[in-house]
Amino acid sequence: MTIKKTMHELCKEFPDKSYRELEKYRDADRQEEAQQIITQQENEELKDDQVQETWKDKYDLEHRLRQEAEGETKIVKAIGMNSPEMKAAKQKIGEMQKELDRVKKENNDLYNKLADLTDPARKIQKARESGL
């Protein structure tokens, strides 16, 4: 950006010029400066537009890739949950859960029987019931 010269400074610099010529010179400087400002603003706008386009392109690419990934995930889930292997695994898990429940119940019953047999108060009560 150029430094604005006053009419006094221009008169000192160009003593042989008339006031009218100095005004034209000053006005030409101002117009040149205004044109530089306009050009600078246009360049900044172009840069801003390019930055916005770059971000828009990146956003569009990310959006498209995310949609593709979500679609593929849905397909994998749908196929995986209904595949013969998954059905067989679910059936096997059900059978094993039933077996585990049976073993837990049997273990609990055996624990209760053992507790009854080893409880001294229970032994005395049984002896009294039997008539001893």
Number of separate helices: 4
Overall pLDDT: 80
Helix content: over 70%
Q: Specify the biggest β-sheet.
A: none
Cα radius of gyration in angstroms = 48 Å
Compute the separation of the termini in Å.
121 Å
Strand content: under 5%
- Note poorly predicted spans: none
Structural class: mainly alpha
Element pattern in H and E: HHHH
Shape: rod-shaped
Give a count of the beta strands, DSSP E runs of length 2 or more.
Answer: 0
Short description:
This protein is mostly helical and 132 residues long. The protein has four helices and no strands.
What is the fold's blueprint, element by element?
Blueprint: H1 7-13, H2 19-82, H3 84-118, H4 120-130
Walk me through this protein's architecture:
The mean pLDDT is 80. This protein has helices at 7-13, 19-82, 84-118, 120-130. The chain is rod-shaped, with a radius of gyration of 48 Å. With 132 residues, the protein is mostly helical. The chain has a domain at 87-132.
Considering the chains and any ligands shown, give keywords for the structure.
mainly alpha; 132 residues; rod-shaped; 0% strand
